[in-house]
Amino acid sequence: MSQFLTRTPVYVWAILAFLVFRGVLAARDRDITMTRMTIIPVLMLVLSLQSIGARYGLASVAMVAWLAGSAAVALQCWNFGGSRVEAGVAPGSLRMRGSWTPLLLMLAIFVIKYAMAVVQVVRPQVAASTGFALASCGLLGLCNGYFLGQLACDRAASRRVLRGQQCNGAQPAMVDAV
Hints:
Blueprint: H1 2-7, H2 10-26, E1 30-32, H3 34-55, H4 61-80, E2 85-87, E3 94-96, H5 101-122, H6 124-127, H7 130-167
Antiparallel strand pairs: 1-3, 2-3
Helix pairs in contact: 2-5, 3-5, 3-7, 4-7, 5-7
């Protein structure tokens, strides 16, 4: 195990540090713009799709597993999840309630991607198997589904909040265009 850790490129640890930093920030209530709200879900989407595309191709059974997992969780978040967004202190601003869930899911995506890379090196025949592709990509889809579903909820709530502020005479100052 120590060989894997010491042979891991430095940039991988930099990505982990960035994800932990962003995850800790997400645990606190904060003012946010609609653009900033989108950064982490899009980053996690890109990281997952990059792994799937590089290992299995985007037109593969692995991608189908990712889509199924992502759609299932995104629909659950959309139907049963609540928004974390409310009106901010300043006119036109949004306040997002903190949550530890983004940190946990970012770490889960990192660990899944790391495990995929390790299995690719140690047991390439396992990494190439359909079962491994379905399991690993399905798990990535579940994690991404949360981010995408929560983003959809938060963006819908943001639009309602901003419309309410405009109706009350406040001018949107900090919020990006939708």
